[in-house]
Fold these 2 entries.
Entry 1:
Amino acid sequence: MNAHSAATETALAYFHAWSGHDVDKAMAYIADDIVCESPGGRIEGADAYRAFLEPFVGIVTGTRMLAAFGDERTALVMYDTSTLPVTSAPAAELVTVRDGVITNSRIIFDRLPFPPPPQ
Amino acid sequence: MNAHSAATETALAYFHAWSGHDVDKAMAYIADDIVCESPGGRIEGADAYRAFLEPFVGIVTGTRMLAAFGDERTALVMYDTSTLPVTSAPAAELVTVRDGVITNSRIIFDRLPFPPPPQ
């Protein structure tokens, strides 16, 4: 297997941080002006992103990286997660990295098995 | 950008075939004994896979590849689709390729915006 690209290294470091339930460390890889397209809609800015990430990390009981590829600026990863409500909840993330932080992210996962978020 | 890997070329050829509503051509890239993990469960064999793919292709009105990476045996792609019921329905696929056909596939998309499949 080839060495990971710079962007892939950042995506993996971010993944391992939140997988270890270390939200502060994970947020160190997130740009202040991140724009994230998630199944639930667009998330803009690090504060909003943390409000999206932290509750999810709170229900994660296990993770497994399935594949990680990328080039200098872009990384695409797919991983599986175990969560309290859903045994297997895989996701994919396409991220753009600038100066070691994620500036843009597109996240795909299946919301159907999850209970609806609080309104 | 680097040249695509062999597996990525297969994943892209498969994508372009079904994007063009050519299910027969798409199925030429699918192994007879394909095993696919989809949000709705495991799909085994080309007949079952076609029964999964064909109704989806029937509602697709547009597609856009967002990223495609891989190595000799594995490809990971993310694309957006426009469909009759859902304007933007992105998906990610992790595929294993053997002799130019996809033998294993993991597909992630958000089922929530789609109407439930017929029982």
Note: The mean pLDDT of chain B is 95.
Entry 2:
Amino acid sequence: MVYRVGLLGLGTVGTGVVQILQRPGHPLLRAVDIGAVGVRSLDKPREVQIPPERLTTDLERIVSDPEIDIVIELLGGLEPARSLILKAIDHGKQVITANKAVIARYGAEIFQAAAQAKVSVLLEAAVAGGIPILQPLQQSLRANHLQAVWGIINGTTNFILSQMTQEGISFEEALAIAQARGYAEADPSADVEGWDAADKIAILASLAFGLPVEREHIPCEGIRDISATDIRYAREWGFTFKLLAIAQSSPRAASSAGPSRLDIRVHPTLLPLTHPLASINGVDNAVLVQGDPLGQVVLSGPGAGRGPTASAVVGDLLTLIAHLQTGAQVPNPLLGFPPLLPFSAGGAEPPQLQVGIPLAELEAEFYVRVLAQDQPGVIGAIGTCFGNHRVSLESITQKECHREQAEIVILTHTVREADCQRAIAEIRQLPQVAGIPGLFRVLR
Amino acid sequence: MVYRVGLLGLGTVGTGVVQILQRPGHPLLRAVDIGAVGVRSLDKPREVQIPPERLTTDLERIVSDPEIDIVIELLGGLEPARSLILKAIDHGKQVITANKAVIARYGAEIFQAAAQAKVSVLLEAAVAGGIPILQPLQQSLRANHLQAVWGIINGTTNFILSQMTQEGISFEEALAIAQARGYAEADPSADVEGWDAADKIAILASLAFGLPVEREHIPCEGIRDISATDIRYAREWGFTFKLLAIAQSSPRAASSAGPSRLDIRVHPTLLPLTHPLASINGVDNAVLVQGDPLGQVVLSGPGAGRGPTASAVVGDLLTLIAHLQTGAQVPNPLLGFPPLLPFSAGGAEPPQLQVGIPLAELEAEFYVRVLAQDQPGVIGAIGTCFGNHRVSLESITQKECHREQAEIVILTHTVREADCQRAIAEIRQLPQVAGIPGLFRVLR
Ligand SMILES: NC(=O)c1ccc[n+]([C@@H]2O[C@H](COP(=O)([O-])OP(=O)(O)OC[C@H]3O[C@@H](n4cnc5c(N)ncnc54)[C@H](OP(=O)(O)O)[C@@H]3O)[C@@H](O)[C@H]2O)c1
Ligand SMILES: NC(=O)c1ccc[n+]([C@@H]2O[C@H](COP(=O)([O-])OP(=O)(O)OC[C@H]3O[C@@H](n4cnc5c(N)ncnc54)[C@H](OP(=O)(O)O)[C@@H]3O)[C@@H](O)[C@H]2O)c1
């Protein structure tokens, strides 16, 4: 049996996929024939050889071609990717994609359509590149009551933070290096504002907690405001900065009724240097999964790049072909994305989770850096503001003075964010205070 | 549809499996009924409630009971585990096991039988406890040409080495702590001699490289000879001691013909503190997988214990049920262990790998600690011996003197092991030399 693949896109990842398929690492992949490749330009020089009659700009034809069994979408962007995926499903094709943006926004629509058409949509490459994370979350780890998924899932920002940490340079300098090396785009917003990480944690959270997660319910803060100074002070206290994407079930206080809540967010975080995610540097990604009775596992490796991403795409292709070869009549319920389907279908109650908690309601320790006039009494005034809002402090230190200014760095105990924000607002009003350039959460 | 499970063994892991199944984390697991549980003693108090009529000492009956669909073997040991697994297969049952000892020795026999009976034998829990590693190696990572699998896959020895490193204590003291905490058995040989790690790397290597690995082809050295002194000196140079299980394809020298070779071995290793496996401490396990075009991924987490191991067993059960629900007519070729089957069946040539390389033929850097009389010229004499056998040195240091004795610690460049061994033999003959208590490989 030969499986005919329609490949949409022959860019970074698409080229990597063709390279693997032209020299497959597993015998089952020899059953694959690349029937058609859809691109924007037929004239562009390509790094791989594709018979000219198979290269086309007519992507609509690929996804409706009765000869094609499996469509691999590697275009990127929202449209025409979304429409082509839906059309491929309508025509009964299995689908593989690396497109986190489309899945995070249109996942519900896509997986509903896939369930109706009885096809699978696989997307291992969409999150954390070459690291196996979606399949383990659905299979090996799935017997657990999953409690938390924490990820460093954006390689660009991890590279920038690693550079800032190692070289003591500013965000702008580190961004320029990332751009020069091709790790950041000319407009780096999607990465540095945390939007890409938010797309990915939406996907991880839906899988881990079995419920749809709306992208807009994810509070998201980027890394632009982190300064070399904050990184240095954090380090002195044994912390390192990481852009964390977090999804965890958060039991309500015993007093209040209602379902548990899914705490999901993306923001820069100070992690103790001994934390298992603290040593993930450069463009690497890592995902920590905590479950009961499992405990914690950490999966780490290259989160992007041609080779790792293509490896995940072709891993999905292999998984799909193996499944099709068994004579199965329906999709395997642990492949693709059944959690987004109506829960009644599987006979299960929907999980009792309210998605998204406003940051103000969460608890954390905080790192705060205040610029103030170097006057006696300023530490006392700042401490009093925190006390007024029941924010208890672990440490308050006057760091260094220049031009009559003092830098005062504070580490709080675990407090409600709303209380900390109120204290901060009061501190901003103090006559001695010039500004609060650093305010970050500390997690352990 | 209800799937009836026959559970063989209700000890540490078996009890954990029942606990998960009595409070399942995934709706598909509600289709599981624990039809029978086989134990040695009916009178032992149990931590979980099993209806008395389902508890039996007649394990033969469980594996031949037509009502049972899936047999989970959690007895441990070679017999009767092997015979019961084979009998279950003969009776057409799907099998799940956590028994690395049986699989490492009788895997070929068992998987051959499973292929004939068209059933799957799953064993995620047999290697690295709760860490998903066998499924990723077979699915998400399988599109790669796998080059190396390095593992810290014995929690007992990793705990002992971590204790020795953190507390500066001896092997015997650390072993006693491990025994007191239940991490080491009264007879700790299987762990500390590296035999358990060898069982597991045999399984990992067969999966990763797609060929049967005979347990006897794996050179294996334990951790008994590591002293607190060696750990301290290694640390000063930026290394930490780990018991590594290694499987990697080793291309022959360009000059020589013949297939590539599979370098597979277990021994204590000095790793740079910056190595991704260097920070795996305590009873945790980790597996590093390197492939082309993937690069390196590292999967880490709890390598043993009731919860993590049961999590992996029930993960396999879920995978199996999901597969059975699809109406598949044959086992999924990416579940269980097809690589041990005759390769012609899949239309693939057998991989061109010769399994096992004598350590003497391998290359490494070496750490050597020599006890010698504190006399002028001794460093020169030792250096000359190394030079005689073309062992080039990175560093040779006289550490401290007590009772007229000097400790001389050497780090070589990368050399053939046979050359290093010849130099060591010559050094042993030097009149000034009292002994060579430390000789270990350094890998990066
Ligand atoms: N690159 C990574 O490291 C990475 C990692 C993880 C996930 N991903 C995801 O993988 C997907 C592909 O990324 P990539 O880096 O390979 O993108 P890319 O290099 O920009 O390639 C995109 C390809 O799609 C084609 N294409 C785009 N829009 C098209 C249209 N409207 N009609 C026809 N063809 C069109 C382009 O054709 P032309 O060649 O003719 O221009 C090109 O071949 C994205 O969803 C991305 O998020 C990428
Ligand atoms: N423990 C771990 O952390 C761990 C981790 C990874 C893999 N594993 C593997 O999991 C398997 C089970 O380990 P375990 O720690 O759960 O072992 P265990 O605590 O010693 O339990 C063994 C169970 O099997 C029963 N049993 C043993 N021999 C029997 C026989 N001949 N007839 C009937 N019943 C018999 C015992 O019955 P009684 O209760 O009546 O004595 C007991 O219930 C082993 O293969 C082990 O290598 C264990």
Note: Confidence is low (pLDDT under 50) at residues 339-348 of chain B.
